[in-house]
């Protein structure tokens, strides 16, 4: 604002296992909306549905991050974590909570399609946070995302 750049929306990233609790997210986005008078989106979030891997690449979401996040690494835990983030955004005063974007909801492990374009066999460190299980079935969190 001090540089006079106009903007319409404020976007924040919030992974509860890295950035803190849903209560801290709520306090932050309420403050931002009140201070700047702009709508808020959570531009990226994700949570694991399992600690198991589906390829050879170590997953970013692991038991330490599960503990930090406070939800179990289960299909229901993933749905509950996402629901909590969505509810925080919906609770922003004056209707300024716009919505939530899920980071890489379809990034499942596919042989020969790794994260590194120079090394197709590099694997995927995010597949346990996708919204589809290792049998390519939609997880409950996908329906929760539809309520955002």
UniProtKB/TrEMBL annotation:
Assigned EC number: 3.2.1.89
SUPFAM superfamilies reported for this sequence: (Trans)glycosidases (SSF51445)
Enzymatic reactions: The enzyme specifically hydrolyzes (1->4)-beta-D-galactosidic linkages in type I arabinogalactans
Record GO biological process: pectin catabolic process
InterPro entries linked to this entry: GH (IPR017853), Glyco_hydro_53 (IPR011683)
UniProt GO molecular function: arabinogalactan endo-1,4-beta-galactosidase activity; glucosidase activity
Family statement drawn from the similarity comment of this UniProt entry: Belongs to the glycosyl hydrolase 53 family.
Protein name: Arabinogalactan endo-beta-1,4-galactanase
Organism: Phytohabitans suffuscus
Source taxonomy: Bacteria, Bacillati, Actinomycetota, Actinomycetes, Micromonosporales
């Amino acid at each position: 604002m001090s540089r006079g750049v106009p903007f319409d929306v404020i976007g924040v990233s919030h992974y509860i296992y890295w950035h803190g609790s849903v209560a801290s997210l709520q306090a932050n986005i309420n403050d931002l909306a009140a201070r700047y008078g702009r709508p808020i989106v959570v531009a990226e979030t994700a949570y694991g549905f399992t600690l198991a891997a589906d390829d050879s690449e170590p997953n970013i979401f692991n038991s330490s991050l599960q503990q930090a996040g406070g939800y179990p690494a289960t299909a229901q835990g993933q749905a509950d974590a996402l629901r909590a983030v969505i509810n925080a955004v919906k609770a922003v005063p004056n209707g300024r909570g716009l919505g939530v974007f899920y980071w890489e909801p379809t990034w499942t492990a596919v042989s020969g399609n790794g994260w590194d374009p120079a090394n197709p066999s590099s694997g995927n460190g995010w597949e346990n946070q996708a919204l589809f299980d290792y049998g390519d079935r939609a997880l409950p969190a996908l329906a929760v995302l539809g309520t955002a």
